[in-house]
Design goal:
This is F-box/LRR-repeat protein 4. It holds the Pfam family F-box-like. The structure is a single chain. The protein contains 15 helices and 14 strands. It is an alpha/beta fold. The longest helix has 16 residues, at about 250-265. The radius of gyration is 25 Å and the shape is globular. The chain starts with 5 loop residues before the first helix and ends with a strand. Residues about 1-5 and about 10-15 have low confidence and may be disordered.
Length: about 350
C-alpha cells in the first residue's frame, strides 16, 4: 500500500519550497530561464510577487524570436527591468520603435547588448538611442547587421566605455571605426571583420594598447600596420584569415604577422584560416611559449613534419585542430599517431578523419 499518493508528494514538495525565506527563493528563481520564471508566477500570489522582483531581470535572452514575441516582452517586462544589464536579441525581429521605447525605460544600466543578425530591423534609430542613454555599455555585438548606415555608425562615437565590439559583416568604414576606437581606449576585444586595415591597426596601437582579442584579414594589411599592433602587449587571442596567393608581397606581410606572434609572449590562442605556411613561419610561431590552443582551417604546410617544432617548443600547448589541412589521409594518421605518442599532453583533432 502507498503511504503517499503522487498528489500528496507534489503538495509536500510545494509546501517545502514555499516555506523557504524570500532571499533563498529569489536565489533559486534567479537561475531560471525567462519562460520558466513566467510559469512560476502563476503558482500562487506569493510567487507572483516574487517573480516580479526587478533583481531577477538583470539579464534577458530573447534570441531568434518573432516581432510578435518581442513586442510582448518589451511591453510586459518594462516595469521589471529597471536594473537590466545584459540584453541578447540575437537573430530576433522587432519593431525598432518598440525597442527604442524599451531602451528609454530600461537601458540606462545596460553593459552588454547583442543585436547579432538582426537583419530585418532598421537599427539606426536604436543606435541613436543607445548612444544617448547607454553610457555604461561595455559589449556591443552588431555582427551581420547590414541595415546600419554611416549615420548609424557615427552614433557609436558618443560611447566611451566599450570593451568588446563585434562589427563583422557590417558596412562600417575604417575611418569611422578609428573614431570609435579613439573614444573607447579600454577596448579589449575587437572583431572588425574585413575592416581592419593598416589605419585601424595604427589606431589600435595608439589608443587601445590593452587589446586582448582581434581577428585579422591578411589581404588588407601591410607590415607597417602589423608593426603598430605590436604596441598591444596583452594580446591573448588572434584569428587570422590568410589567402592562398603566394607572391612576394603576401610572404612579407605574412612573415610580419608571425614575427608579431613570436613577440607576443602572452599569446594563448591563434586560429588560422586558409593560406600556406612556410617552415620559417612555423618556427616563429613556436616562439610563443604560452600558447594553449591552435586551430588551422584549410591551411597547407610546406613540410607537414615540421609542425612538430611547435609541439616541442610550446610546453603549455593543450589543443591543436587541423581541419582540411593535410590532403594525404595516410600521412595525417601517421603524423597524429607520432604526435600523440611523443606529446601525450596535447590533444590533436583532425577533420576529416
Amino acid at each position: 500500500m502507498k503511504l503517499y499518493s503522487d498528489e500528496s508528494r507534489d503538495l509536500s514538495r510545494y509546501s517545502s519550497l514555499s516555506a523557504l525565506p524570500k532571499e533563498m527563493l529569489l536565489k533559486i528563481l534567479n537561475n531560471l530561464d525567462l519562460t520558466t520564471l513566467c510559469r512560476m508566477s502563476s503558482v500562487d500570489k506569493r510567487f507572483n510577487g516574487l517573480t516580479q522582483d526587478p533583481l531577477l531581470y538583470t539579464r534577458l535572452n530573447i534570441r531568434r524570436v518573432s516581432a510578435f514575441i518581442t513586442r510582448k516582452v518589451f511591453r510586459c517586462f518594462t516595469a521589471r527591468c529597471k536594473y537590466l544589464r545584459q540584453l541578447d536579441l540575437t537573430g530576433s525581429n522587432f519593431d525598432v520603435n518598440d525597442f527604442v521605447n524599451f531602451l528609454d525605460n530600461c537601458g540606462r544600466n545596460l553593459t552588454h547588448l547583442k543585436l547579432r543578425d538582426c537583419n530585418n530591423v532598421d537599427l539606426n534609430p536604436a543606435l541613436h538611442k543607445i548612444s544617448e542613454i547607454c553610457k555604461n555599455l561595455k559589449e556591443l555585438n552588431l555582427c551581420g547587421c547590414l541595415s546600419i548606415n554611416n549615420k548609424g555608425f557615427s552614433y557609436l562615437e558618443k560611447l566611451e566605455s566599450l570593451e568588446r565590439l563585434n562589427l563583422c559583416g557590417t558596412h562600417i568604414k575604417a575611418q569611422q571605426l578609428c573614431k570609435i576606437l579613439q573614444k573607447n581606449q579600454r577596448m579589449r576585444e575587437l572583431y572588425p571583420g574585413i575592416h581592419a586595415d593598416d589605419a585601424v591597426l595604427l589606431e589600435l596601437g595608439k589608443s587601445c594598447r590593452d587589446l586582448e582579442v582581434i581577428d585579422l584579414f591578411e589581404r588588407y594589411l601591410t607590415p607597417h600596420g602589423i608593426s603598430a599592433l605590436a604596441n598591444c602587449k596583452n594580446l591573448l587571442k588572434v584569428e587570422c584569415t590568410m589567402y592562398g596567393v603566394h607572391c612576394m608581397e603576401s610572404l612579407v606581410t605574412r612573415d610580419s604577422l608571425f614575427e608579431l606572434f613570436s613577440s607576443s609572449q602572452n599569446l594563448q590562442e591563434v586560429h588560422f584560416n586558409h593560406g600556406i605556411l612556410t617552415d620559417h613561419q612555423l618556427e616563429l610561431l613556436a616562439q610563443c611559449k604560452n600558447l594553449k590552443k591552435l586551430s588551422f582551417n584549410d591551411v597547407e604546410f610546406h613540410t607537414p613534419d615540421k609542425f612538430s617544432v611547435i609541439l616541442e617548443q610550446c610546453p603549455k600547448l593543450q589543443e591543436v585542430y587541423l581541419i582540411f589541412c593535410i590532403k594525404n589521409q595516410l600521412q595525417v594518421n601517421q603524423l597524429v599517431n607520432q604526435w600523440k605518442e611523443r606529446y601525450p599532453h596535447v590533444s590533436v583533432y583532425t577533420y576529416p578523419m
